[in-house]
Design brief:
By secondary structure, the chain is of the alpha+beta class. Helix content is 58%, strand content 10%. The chain folds into four domains: 2-104 and 263-318, no CATH class; 150-219, Alpha-Beta Plaits; 332-429 and 583-653, no CATH class; 458-580, no CATH class.
């Protein structure tokens, strides 16, 4: 377990080599560049200046957006084969291929603009088609009308075109108008409306219009030429639009072989934007520029060799000051490294603190496994992760790889506890035997190597508390180690040693009582001399806590008061230990839910052919859901035990994570 030692680095290079040097640093990803903020009112540096790169970066960001938009257009019309996946990371690209693609960037951007232009036209077509279809739908009731839709009559007549609600007979319309000099022509009718053409003399027009208004007469939504000719034009236009859209789709599909170029150009401008952000923060003159930052000590030789063999530059390393906030980078062995993400999610260690990753990993897989506690689920996790890692060995990102390994090791812990508790998809082996082979199988049939939580819950609960005590004691030991390492051995005695004495003494006394011992099925009956030893240990611990728990106060009254308050903290230790009952609770939840699904499957397994099929279906669906839900629960509650009960005893965190200047790309990683 280690926090990698950091070095400060100063690089002085020629400005003519700035582009190549920064790109090299970006590809290596081992240097965190220190950016000094410029504040209003600061005196301008007479030697060094900074370049305003905001405008250039805005252009790059725009190009990134355009490239991603063009890629989305292509993917929508011609989806990529394989489709990627949750665990698929960036592909590796050689420096030669990278430089080759750079030379094609203008042609690639032409493709980007063309794709966006074609998509814009397709969107216009998509907006036009519903309008045309709406006009066709509005014209449909008027197809038998032989006159233009905007006709108003002749020199002596007035024509009203429109519709009446519901299906209205001609005689009813005539009665409503009540004028014998009116001609009514029903164009079409349906239960919803009746389309009519009503003609009258011009001198009767006002009266007829008034009668029609009372009958809820409505003008048509369309106008213009004869409906039949309008339909012909609209149909032809729709066919033309559909053909144009199909042609545009074909043009877009033709770019599918160049999909990788679109991915590259988005990554290329992302790297350039990040590079120019750094350039804007660098101190430089007309001829030289400076790069300041932090680098892991183990990478200093590599960086120096790469830079000095390729460029005329100076590279100097120095130790950070004692009070300097240094970025934190963790490095652990293969067993502990997968838990680094869990630690980082809580907080990186502050300067001078130990890296808790290894200590956390010692318990992490054990606690996770006890909560999930099904051997078959563990096998699925181990095999599933192994397959994913094998398929993505060249593309899975390091962070995702660590997370997957964490679940794989947790799967091993789950297998162990599943075997100990005799859980293989819950009680599925017994259910299968009892359902299909031997109905007389005893109800207490078990393949557990130790106990079944549902049968002996108090035994498992007692063991969970023991695990909790050990876990907490390890956290206290880590605090003592940190104090001693920082030259404060008395703090280790006062803040840890006395608590050890008190807790060990209290546990020894309580475990011998009938109430606590009976809870776990124990009857120790320890000799009085042993109990006396426990009482002495607890007494020494309590007195030590009262005397030294408030040692920061010189006033003895206040000091004793603070000490008594510190002694009251024993209640928090009791609460912490009780928290480990979740090991039993989640293990029981996994087993009980499994048994419920197995029992449901057994209930429908009777019919000869369909029964086994339904049995298998319920088992598969039920256990997939159970695995997903309880694996999530195990992950959350294992983290909680690590964060609250374990880290709470010794770990503060607050360190700044190491964030190197690197390729923050989405699709490719450029390597030397």
């Amino acid at each position: 377990m280690a926090v990698l030692p950091m070095k400060k680095v100063l690089i002085v290079g020629l400005r003519k080599n700035r582009k190549q040097m920064l790109e090299l640093l970006q590809r290596q990803g081992v240097l965190e560049i220190e950016t000094a903020a410029v504040h209003d009112g600061d005196e301008p540096d007479p030697v060094f200046s900074r370049t305003d790169t905001a405008g250039v970066r805005a252009t790059f960001e725009k190009n990134i957006t355009l490239a991603n938009q063009a890629l989305a257009v292509l993917d929508a019309v011609s989806p990529p084969e394989g489709g990627g996946g949750l665990f698929v990371g960036r592909e590796k690209m050689s420096l030669t291929d990278y430089e080759t693609n750079i030379r094609k960037r203008e042609k690639i951007m032409d493709m980007v603009y063309d794709l966006i232009s074609q998509d814009k036209r397709r969107n216009e077509i998509a907006a036009e088609i519903p309008k045309e279809e709406g006009q066709l739908e509005a014209l449909a009731p008027w197809q038998d009308f032989p006159q233009p839709m905007d006709c108003t009559g002749t020199a002596r007549t007035k024509t009203f075109l429109g519709s009446l609600p519901n299906d209205v007979p001609e005689q009813e319309i005539m009665s409503g108008i009540d004028n014998e000099r009116v001609a009514v022509d029903i164009i079409s009718h349906s239960p919803e409306q009746t389309c009519v053409a009503i003609t009258c003399l011009k001198e009767d027009a006002a009266a007829v219009e008034e009668k029609l208004r009372h009958m809820s007469f409505a003008r048509p939504a369309v106008s213009g030429d004869v409906p039949a000719r309008q339909k012909e034009k609209l149909t032809a236009n729709l066919e033309k639009l559909a053909a144009e859209d199909e042609k545009l789709r074909d043009k877009i599909k033709a770019y599918a072989p160049r999909r990788d170029e679109l991915k590259f150009i988005a990554d290329y401008f992302r790297m350039r934007s990040d590079k120019y952000e750094v350039i804007g923060s660098l101190e430089q003159t007309e001829r030289v520029f400076l790069v300041r930052g932090y680098i892991p000590e183990q990478s200093t030789r590599l960086l120096e060799d790469l830079l000095t063999t390729r460029f005329d530059c100076v590279v100097e390393f120095s130790d950070p000051a004692e009070d300097e906030e240094v970025p934190i980078l963790l490095k652990n062995n293969a067993y502990a490294a997968p838990v680094e993400g869990v630690v980082a999610s809580y907080a990186m260690p502050a300067r001078g603190e130990i890296d808790p990753t290894f200590l956390a990993s010692v318990f992490y897989y054990f606690l996770f496994g006890m909560m999930l506690s099904d051997a078959a689920y563990g096998l699925i996790m181990v095999i599933g992760v192994a397959v994913v890692l094998a398929k993505g060995k060249d593309t899975i990102e390091p962070g995702m790889r660590k997370t997957l390994k964490m679940f794989q090791y947790s799967g091993i812990g789950t297998i162990f506890w599943g075997v100990m508790f005799g859980s293989w998809f819950g009680d599925l082996p017994a259910v299968i035997i009892r359902t299909f082979f031997d109905p007389s199988l005893p109800a207490d049939f078990s393949i557990a190597l130790w106990v079944e939580p549902a049968v002996q819950p108090m035994t498992v609960l007692g063991f969970a508390f023991i695990i909790g005590i050990i876990h907490i004691f390890f956290g206290m030991a880590a605090l003592a180690y940190t104090d001693i390492k920082q030259g404060k051995p008395l703090d280790a005695l006062f803040d840890v040693g006395f608590w050890y004495l008190l807790l060990i003494g209290a546990i020894g006394i309580l475990i011998n009582t009938e109430m606590v011992g009976g809870m776990f099925g124990l009857s120790l009956n320890l000799p009085a001399s042993v109990i006396t030893v426990f009482e002495i240990l607890a007494g020494i611990g309590a007195v030590g806590i009262v005397l030294f728990g408030g040692r920061d106060s010189s006033n003895w009254g206040l000091r004793i008061g603070k000490g008594l308050y510190a002694l009251y903290g024993i209640s928090s230790y009791l609460s912490d230990i009780l928290s480990y009952s979740r090991l039993l609770a989640l293990g029981l939840a996994t087993g009980v839910i499994s048994s419920v699904f197995n029992s449901m499957a057994a209930m429908v397994a009777g019919p000869p052919v369909i029964g086994p099929v339904l049995f298998a279906l319920i088992v598969v669906v039920g256990h997939v859901l159970n695995l997903a839900i309880n694996a999530l629960g195990a992950y959350v509650h294992t983290n909680r035990l690590e964060y609250v009960e374990f880290f709470g005893k010794f770990y503060n965190g607050g360190g700044k994570p190491f964030t190197p200047f690197t390729e923050n790309t989405k699709h490719y990683r450029v390597k030397e």
